[in-house]
Automatic annotation (TrEMBL):
<feature type="binding site">
    <location>
        <begin position="91"/>
        <end position="95"/>
    </location>
    <ligand>
        <name>GTP</name>
    </ligand>
</feature>
<feature type="domain" description="Tr-type G">
    <location>
        <begin position="14"/>
        <end position="284"/>
    </location>
</feature>
<dbReference type="GO" id="GO:0016150">
    <property type="term" value="F:translation release factor activity, codon nonspecific"/>
</dbReference>
<feature type="binding site">
    <location>
        <begin position="145"/>
        <end position="148"/>
    </location>
    <ligand>
        <name>GTP</name>
    </ligand>
</feature>
<protein>
    <recommendedName>
        <fullName>Peptide chain release factor 3</fullName>
    </recommendedName>
</protein>
<comment type="similarity">
    <text>Belongs to the TRAFAC class translation factor GTPase superfamily. Classic translation factor GTPase family. PrfC subfamily.</text>
</comment>
<dbReference type="GO" id="GO:0006449">
    <property type="term" value="P:regulation of translational termination"/>
</dbReference>
<dbReference type="InterPro" id="IPR053905">
    <property type="entry name" value="EF-G-like_DII"/>
</dbReference>
<dbReference type="Pfam" id="PF16658">
    <property type="entry name" value="RF3_C"/>
</dbReference>
<dbReference type="InterPro" id="IPR004548">
    <property type="entry name" value="PrfC"/>
</dbReference>
<keyword id="KW-0342">GTP-binding</keyword>
<dbReference type="GO" id="GO:0003924">
    <property type="term" value="F:GTPase activity"/>
</dbReference>
<dbReference type="InterPro" id="IPR000795">
    <property type="entry name" value="T_Tr_GTP-bd_dom"/>
</dbReference>
<dbReference type="InterPro" id="IPR038467">
    <property type="entry name" value="RF3_dom_3_sf"/>
</dbReference>
<comment type="function">
    <text>Increases the formation of ribosomal termination complexes and stimulates activities of RF-1 and RF-2. It binds guanine nucleotides and has strong preference for UGA stop codons. It may interact directly with the ribosome. The stimulation of RF-1 and RF-2 is significantly reduced by GTP and GDP, but not by GMP.</text>
</comment>
<dbReference type="InterPro" id="IPR031157">
    <property type="entry name" value="G_TR_CS"/>
</dbReference>
<dbReference type="InterPro" id="IPR005225">
    <property type="entry name" value="Small_GTP-bd"/>
</dbReference>
Length: 530
């Protein structure tokens, strides 16, 4: 690659900001995503997620079942330009049953934004997702949402964040009231006050400057409010006793900048976005299987598939593989090698996203997320590379299912659509598929009950295949080395099945059944996924 091309690549990579938005369900994650898209000019109108009767739906909730229920059950990818930065947002499922999709998505980003409901604080799903961010060592920015409603005391929220998640926090701004008494935000970082309703409080000015002592100069109606004196005291306390601001600690995922605001009323969101872009990292190096790393500015193209989604456009019944570019530059029509098979593939059909809207992409660089039309070549976790040197990135996490159902077509004459649907949904990672060892009975496994409901809904609506599902309940799945397997080991308490890679495993009825098996076959090693 020539010096000019290298410089252009480096310059473009440095413009990229790729991050995921994570939260517990109903914390307002999808709403803040939409407000960010508004600022980027990517959409003209944000629809309140709950407003189903009005026919307005969240832009990032594109699947029919998401529109019906007002929940996110898939990861959406959205891209836009803002302040000379190329932003890739991954809006993840909030529902805990779809955490596996979220975990894989977190492997494809360089930072995470954690949205917290200020009335509820840190919730269970937030803790789980936060742990993955910590494991990856990526920066975590916190947005305390729903300030337009009465919530918990901000000091209490900061303390909980630090204690429960074991991370230092640095408040970038501080609320002046909440709910009906909300006046604005005391911006500690920019030394100004952001008015909640500028027209009523400051002659239409959004920001009120502060002097060196952190106070408003001259007469102002804010100074007559008791909340103003209270926030000055709290701001002084934070400056004297709070954590020191450190860009190094933020980059290492040890210090979380905390922003307060209200996504629903679009208050504090633009300030958050602009400050976030100032400190969020550009694309970083990715680890390969041999403990080596590849830098984003390496000239040769490489990337990995972290998600596969069928039927994003119901009119075309297509399937898209989501690829994170890890190094170099993508050019439409380029030839790459699929690491798993060694097969050469031409990437002639590629796309970029705005939820269900797409446009053909001709080029992209490290840090970008692109979609590849998939005719069955790709699997989640696949590495693609363009150079002569073989590259294979580290495996993506896969979870051991805990709930299982037998599944069969309601209409035996529709076997073709049944098999097509089940195979595509399995390749997406939406569910896991098993077959009983001696028959062709299909068994699907999931982490949570909602996955089964979404599976049934999508089979019916996307593949015109009604299914009969019979619960076999909660089971403990453990894999066994084929060389150690004796088919007589299976029983009603430890069902012997095969996964989609033909590897044998047992579905144990409970811990007692698994212990009984281990006592009977002490030399047999049982393994699980995550």
């Amino acid at each position: 690659m020539s010096d000019n091309k290298t410089n252009t690549l480096t310059k473009e990579v440095k413009r990229r900001r790729t991050f995921a938005i994570i939260s517990h369900p109903d914390a307002g994650k999808t709403t803040i995503t939409e407000q960010l898209l508004l600022f980027g000019g990517a959409i003209r109108q944000a629809g309140t997620v709950k407003a189903k009767k009005s026919g307005k739906f969240a832009k990032s909730d594109w699947m029919e079942i998401e529109k019906q229920r007002g929940i996110s059950v898939t990861s959406s990818v959205m891209q836009f330009e803002y302040q000379n930065k190329r932003i890739n947002i991954l809006d993840t499922p909030g529902h805990e049953d779809f955490s596996e999709d979220t975990y894989r998505t977190l492997m494809a980003v360089d930072a995470a934004v954690m949205v917290v409901d200020s009335a509820k604080g840190i919730e269970e799903q937030t803790k789980k997702l936060f742990k993955v961010c910590r494991m990856r060592g990526i920066p975590i920015f916190t947005f305390m949402n729903k300030l337009d409603r009465d919530g918990r005391e901000p000091l209490e929220l900061i303390e909980e964040l630090e204690e429960v998640l074991e991370i230092d926090a640095y408040p970038m701004n501080w609320p002046i009231g909440s709910g009906k008494t909300l006046l604005g935000l005391y911006d500690l970082f920019h030394n100004r006050i952001e008015a909640f309703r500028p027209d009523e409080t400051n002659n239409g000015e959004r920001f009120i400057p502060l002097n060196e002592e952190g106070e408003i100069e001259g007469d102002h109606r804010f100074k007559k409010e008791s909340l103003y004196d209270q926030v000055l005291e709290e701001a002084l306390l934070l400056k004297e006793a709070g954590n020191a601001f450190s860009t190094e600690a933020i980059a290492a995922g040890e210090l979380s900048p905390v922003f307060f605001g209200s996504a629903l009323t679009n208050f504090g969101v633009q300030t958050f976005l602009e400050t976030f872009l100032q400190f969020a990292p550009e694309p970083s190096a990715h680890e390969m299987r041999e403990n080596d790393v590849i830098k984003p500015t390496e000239p040769e193209f490489s990337g990995f598939i972290f998600k596969i989604q069928a039927n994003m456009d119901p009119r075309h019944r297509d399937r898209i593989a989501f690829l994170r570019i890890c190094s170099g530059k993508f050019d439409r029509g380029m030839d790459v090698t699929l690491s798993r098979t060694g097969k050469k593939i031409r990437l002639s059909n590629s796309t970029q996203f705005m939820a269900e809207s797409r446009e053909t992409v001709t080029d992209a660089v490290a840090g970008d997320i692109i979609g590849l039309y998939d005719t069955g070549n790709f699997q989640i976790g696949d590495t693609l590379y363009a150079g002569k040197d073989e590259i294979e990135f580290q495996e993506l996490p896969q979870f051991t299912p805990e709930l299982f159902m037998k599944v069969e077509p309601k209409n035996v004459m529709k076997q073709k659509s049944f098999h097509k649907g089940i195979n595509q949904l399995v390749q997406e990672g939406a569910i896991q598929l098993y077959k009983s060892y001696h028959t062709e009975t299909y068994i699907i496994g999931a982490v949570g009950q909602l996955q089964f409901e979404v599976f049934e809904h999508r089979m019916r609506n996307e593949y015109n295949s009604e299914v009969i599902m019979t619960s076999i309940g909660s089971r403990i799945a453990r894999w066994i080395d084929p060389e150690q397997l004796d088919e007589n080991m299976g029983s009603s308490r430890n069902m012997l099945v095969r996964d989609r890679f033909d590897q044998p495993l047992f579905l144990f009825e409970n811990q007692f059944a698994m212990r009984w098996f281990s006592d009977k076959y002490p030399d047999v090693e049982l393994t699980s996924l995550l």
